[in-house]
Amino acid sequence: MILLMKSAVRVKGHQRGRQYVREHFRQAAKFAADKHKGQTRKDGKTPYITHPVRVASILGREGGETDPVVMLAALLHDTIEDTDTSYSELAENFGEDVAALVVEVSDDMSRSKMERRASQETKQWSDRAARLKFADKTANMRDLVDAPPVGMSREKKIEYARHAKSVIDGMAHQPEKLRRLFDEAYARVLAN
Question: How confident is the model at residue 110, as a pLDDT?
Answer without folding.
Answer: 87
